[in-house]
Amino acid sequence: MTPGERIDVGPPIAIVGALLLIVSLFLDWYEPGITAWTVFEVLDLVLAALALGCVLGAAARLGAALPGGRALRNRVAVLGVLALVLVLSQVINHPPAAVGEDPETGLWLGLGGAGLLAVGGLLSVTRISFAVDVEERAERPPSAPPGPGPAGGAGPAPGDAETAPLDPPHGGQERR
């Protein structure tokens, strides 16, 4: 990386969310030991495809040359919001195989992953974004005192007799 280069944080957030969503599909979504692969008929494949599409699109936004990434780079936000809506629908309305069962870790991890996916996708396409500036900072010489010096406007530096005030404040009279 060159000094001054900026990295948009939206695509990495979307990639982390997509990976969490994929991992959640292998964990238990409902009791007793029901994973997303066993409880859903087609929704598990749709969620996996959405997550993989978002990984490709977000990686393309970061500059990676991946097959299909160019077509998906501007659709990460739409795919992320769609994944979030699908997972939220399963939080509200359990699938027929899990009616009456309590949610497990996989469902909550999938919801968090889909949320990160949607937020990262939206951050990558909106004008509002957070960015990390990777510009190198200049090191301060070891002999320089901490804090603002004469250039900082905080007063004269120690030993500057030429800029020190001659009269005490308040018009030359000392207060007691």
Keywords:
176 residues; mainly alpha; two-stranded antiparallel ribbon; two-stranded antiparallel sheet; 4 strands; elongated
- What proportion of the residues form beta strands (DSSP E)? 5-15%
**Poorly predicted segments:** none
Distance between the termini: 61 Å
| Major sheet | 2 strands, antiparallel
Q: Enumerate the strands of the largest sheet in spatial order, edge to edge or round the barrel.
A: 1-4
Give the helix proportion (percent range). 40-55%
Describe the protein's architecture and organization.
With 176 residues, the protein is mainly α. It has a domain at 6-126. Helices cover 45% and strands 6% of the residues. It is built from six helices and four strands, in the order E-H-E-E-H-H-H-H-H-E. It has helices spanning 10-24, 36-39, 43-61, 69-72, 76-92, 105-125; strands at 6-8, 28-30, 34-35, 131-133. A two-stranded antiparallel ribbon has the order 1-4. A two-stranded antiparallel ribbon has the order 2-3. Helix 3 packs antiparallel against helix 5 (76-92) and helix 5 packs antiparallel against helix 6. The longest helix has 21 residues, at 105-125. The chain is elongated and about 70 Å long.
SSE map:
Blueprint: E1 6-8, H1 10-24, E2 28-30, E3 34-35, H2 36-39, H3 43-61, H4 69-72, H5 76-92, H6 105-125, E4 131-133
Antiparallel strand pairs: 1-4, 2-3
Short account of what is shown:
The chain is mainly α and 176 residues long.
